[in-house]
Structure formats: structure tokens, C-alpha cells
Amino acid sequence: MKGKLKDYIYQPEYECLSRSEMENLQSERLRKTVQLVYDNCKPYRAKMDEFKVKPSDIRSVSDLCKLPFTVKHDLREAYPFGFYTAPQRDMVEIHASSGTTGKLTVVGYTQKDIDVWAEIAARSLAMAGVTKDSIVHVAYGYGLFTGGLGAHYGAQKIGASTVPASAGNTIRQLTLLRDFGATHLCCTPSYAIFLGTEIEKAGMNIEDFSLVGGAFGAEPWTYGMRDELERLLRIDALDIYGLSEISGPGVAMECMQKHGSHVQEDHFIPEIIDPDTLEPLPFGSEGELVFTTITKTGQPLIRYRTRDLCTLSDEKCACGRTTVKMSKVKGRSDDMLIIRGVNVFPSQIEAALMNVAGVSPHYMIYVDRVNNLDVMEIDIELDGNLSPDRVSDVESIKKKVETEVNSYIGLSAKIKLCESGSIRRSEGKAVRVIDRREQ
Ligand code: DLL
Q1: Strand 135-138 vs strand 184-187: parallel, antiparallel, or unpaired?
Q2: What is the rounded distance in angstroms from the CA atom of residue 166 to the CA atom of residue 138?
Q3: Looking at the structure, do residues 415 and 306 belong to the same domain, yes or no?
Q4: Do 179 and 206 fall within a single domain?
Q5: Residue 369 belongs to what domain range?
Q6: 247 C-beta closer than 6 A to ligand 1
Q7: Which one of 8-22, 49-63, 423-437 scores highest in mean pLDDT?
Q8: Which of 315, 332, 349 finishes a domain?
Q9: Is the pLDDT of residue 320 over 80?
Q10: How many other CB atoms are there within 10 angstroms of residue 210's CB atom?
Q11: Which of 56, 139, 302, 329 could form a disulfide with 187 if both were Cys (CB 3.0 to 4.6 A apart)?
Q12: Residue located nearest, by CA, to atom 13 of ligand 1
């Protein structure tokens, strides 16, 4: 690695390039990536042949629009390892996130991919002020979800003391945060607010904490939530964005200007497209965010449609970085919900419900934020032969539904069984989800 540790976590040689320098670097890396996927990944070769585009047609970033898009469905079709471009023996880690029908979206990483991920996570935490002297408390879940390990790799790369607390157990989280003197917290913004509101209730005092900052993401959050979080924990609360398919947390990160997140453009080329026409849109237009990875070796993705809606900006940032910034995510172009940081598709819930005898296919999912935590209630009609008064039947059906939902999506939900015909039918497209959280 170049330079001193200090230089390493802030890398002006990549983060502060002129537009033409960045585009030259991106073009060179794009050419290599396109050749790599064409030579080693059957689905990409087939798609490129279908689009009649050869690796030699892609000379620079301006040729990106000639390439076909990749969507979650493609990864699912090739489940589990069909998008690998390196042999299995070179893969050192495998992560996965939810797919639309219960099949996971799998992501394999070579050691080089893990090194790049650690680098972007380290750069991101550095933007939140993490140094070798910091104590970083990671309360994202560890496991197949990339939050825990991503923040962990980044903090360790900087040389900070890393506390792998993982998710859950609020009192223990608060005790560790206070007693270990954590300077930075990494978790979902809603959980951070919840921790903040629990301090007093736990008989603790914010004065006894040493927190100064944190990197919060994995779910959409508002500027209002930032104000609340900063007030409760007395910190600078910054937005960290990422997705497992592209790498993990750190694909983009907010700097202390708190006005958009810098995309790590030397590793990922961002585009905004119109989700209907699929045409690329200029800076400032709202549309769907698309990424092409240009340094991944195990499972590179070309023009991957994230489904996240936002804008990109090339305006000069006062922090000195010249990388393109993305706005906060304003919504999604599909029906994916993010509940307590977990990606959930309504189709997964439906599949779980349909596994239980005694319920009908009429249901409604309500998502609320209660005490700053997401809660989900599923109202579902019993089938015509059962009435909610038959207490013993109803209790056992309710238990079964709870268990099925939990095992399908890994989240608990409050289940309410209703009389046949009581859930409102829509006249047009069925409305299955009512999300009452503030966005
Ligand atoms: O959520 C990676 C991550 C972990 C990012 C920890 C930040 C912090 P996935 O589970 O694959 O990966 O989910 C990716 O989550 O397409 C967005 O819809 C949403 N998302 C992630 N970060 C943000 C954010 C991780 N800062 C999906 N703001 C993405 C809004 C976010 N949405």
C-alpha cells in the first residue's frame, strides 16, 4: 500500500482525481472487467452475444451504454454460483441477501475483493472521523448480511479497536458502548435512535459515553432522523450506503459536509437511468441507480440495477474529494421493503403464508415505526370454514403462521387472523403492503 497509514485511509490519489483522470482510470478498469466476464461467466457471454457486443467494442466509460443490464433475477437464475468469474477455490468468503422468492442472492469474494471492500469501508469510516485511536462498536448483524463484517474490515484496516457486538440485546450494547468507551457506532439509523432513547431508561447517562460519530445505513433515513440521532447521542451521524451484490457497506459514504455520499468511483461506476425507458439520465435527474464494478475479480457485475431511486451530482464538494455524490435514497423501483435492516419482498411473505393450512390468500402487511423500531403486522383472513371464535384452532394457526414467516424472512411479525371477507379487496392491482413509516 502507498504512503503512510494516514494517507491510506484518505487516498487523494483516487478520491481527488480530475474528471478526465478518473475516466481514464475507469475506462482502463472497465475494459479488463468486460474481458474478464466475457471469458469466464456464461450468463454474461450469452447476454453480450445476444446484444452483439464484443469486449473490443468497450474502449471507454462512454461505451458503457452499449452493455446489457444485470438484475437480481439474473443472479437468482444462476443460483448459487453461476456468476463467478474465478474458480471456487479462489473464493475466500460467500455472502447472501434475500431474493424475491426466497432464493438468496449469492455473492462470492476473492481475497482481492475482500481487500477492496476493506479499503472502501476504511475510506468510509475515515470520513466519519475514525482513526487508529478510535474504538468502533459494530452493532450491524454479523453473518450473511454484509453490514457487520464490512464495518469490521474497514475499522480493522484503519487499525482502530473494533468491537464486534453484532445486533440485538440493547442493555448489553449500551453497557459495552459506555464501558469500552466507543468513539464510533455502526448500525442501522433506526437502531441507533432506539439505543439513544433507551439510555435514560436503562439508568445511564449520555455524559458517561465517549461517542463522537458513526456510520449509519442499510436502510433509508431522513435528515430529520439525523437531527434526532445527533441530538440523542451527541455525535456526527453520517450516511453509509452499499449493497452486497456490489460489495457491501462503503460503496458510497457521506463526508462531514453531510450533503450527499461520495461514490467510490475508482471501484464502481455509477449511472442513473429512467427505470421505465432504461435510458441513462444526466446529473441531477432522479432515477434508478446502476453500478458497474471495475475492480472485482470473483463476481464482477455489469450495469447492475440496484432499484434504489436517487440523484447523482458532480458538484464540487468542500471536503476536497472530487468523486460523484449520490443523494439520499428516496425510494425503490420495486416492492422491496427494508424492515429492521432486513430486505423483505412481499412475495416471500406470501409464500410463507400459503404454507399454512386454514388461511386464505387475502392478507395485508402493515409496517410501522414504534419507538423508533420497525414493526410489522400481518392481517390475514381465515378460510371460509373457520371463524375467529374457534379459539383452539385459531391459536394453533396463528402460531404456525408466526413460525413460517419467521423462518422465511428471519423477522418476527404480529399476526392477526380475521374473519373471511373482512380484508378490503382492491379494485385494481392488489394492495398488499401499507408502509406507515416516515420516509
Ligand atoms: O444493506 C449493505 C449495508 C450494510 C449498507 C450496512 C450500509 C450499512 P444489502 O443487504 O444487500 O446490503 O441491502 C442493500 O439496502 O439496495 C438499499 O435499498 C438499502 N440501503 C443500503 N444502505 C442504504 C442507505 C446492505 N444508506 C439495499 N440508505 C440497497 C438507504 C440503503 N438505503
Answers
A1: parallel
A2: 6
A3: no
A4: yes
A5: 337-435
A6: no
A7: 49-63
A8: 332
A9: yes
A10: 13
A11: 139
A12: 243
